[in-house]
Amino acid sequence: MQKKVTAILFLHIKTFFQDYSEKKGD
């Protein structure tokens, strides 16, 4: 269960950073 939660959190953080980078125009 814990590994699943960590994986989901990691995915959300990855998506967030990708979205952030796109908004910066890099």
Automatic annotation (TrEMBL):
<protein>
    <submittedName>
        <fullName>Transcriptional activator</fullName>
    </submittedName>
</protein>
